[in-house]
Amino acid sequence: MALVVQNVLRSTNELLRDAEDKHRIRRLGFVKNLYQGDTIAEAADREARSAATGGRWADAWNEGGLEELMPSFGGGRPPKLDEDEQEELLQLLQEGQPWKSQEIQHLLSEEFGVEYHPDYLGKFLRDLGLSYAKPRPKRPNRPENPEEILDERVVVLLETY
């Protein structure tokens, strides 16, 4: 039995070393903790998960090993705009700069027939490589030649002292 535990620990350590996905790392750490003597609740707690989650993970491990334990996300929801549409959007946005977020929402609705939540629009645009910047307003009372005026005032002050 000790040989089996050693083999599982060795394999788990190798998999942990190569793992990049946080979900995979957490589950492998859970298995490693179990084989090092933790209870299900303790092993789950070490991975910041509940005992109930630990129980599900232990059942999955016992039913099908590593394949059954690993998460199987379905890839998520498909994007509202495919890659070609995203490229087209980028071109439209670059041609008509600057844009307000309401104008971008209107463009998305009119050109592509999609809507994004206002709170998500900024993330979506950043993911496309765009950034948001407010134009710096010009001061209406700023003189045309502020540097010259400053130089004159400095000269006057230096002459008086």
Overview of the molecule:
By secondary structure, the protein is mostly helical. It folds into two domains: 2-69, no CATH class; 83-127, no CATH class. Helices cover 66% and strands 0% of the residues. It is built from eight helices and no strands. The protein has helices spanning 2-18, 22-35, 40-46, 51-69, 83-95, 101-112, 118-127, 146-160. Helix 1 (2-18) packs antiparallel against helix 2 (22-35) and helix 3 (40-46) crosses helix 4. The protein is elongated, with a radius of gyration of 30 Å. The mean pLDDT is 85.
Features:
mainly alpha; 2 domains; 0% strand; elongated
Q: In a nutshell, what does this entry contain?
A:
With 161 residues, the protein is mainly α.
How many structural domains can be distinguished in the coordinates? 2
> What global shape is seen?
elongated
Report the sheet-strand fraction. Answer: under 5%
Helix content: 55-70%
Order of helices and strands: HHHHHHHH
The profile of the biggest β sheet is: none
Low-pLDDT regions? none
Q: What is the number of beta strands?
A: 0
Task: Write the SSE topology.
Blueprint: H1 2-18, H2 22-35, H3 40-46, H4 51-69, H5 83-95, H6 101-112, H7 118-127, H8 146-160
Helix pairs in contact: 1-2, 2-3, 2-4, 3-4
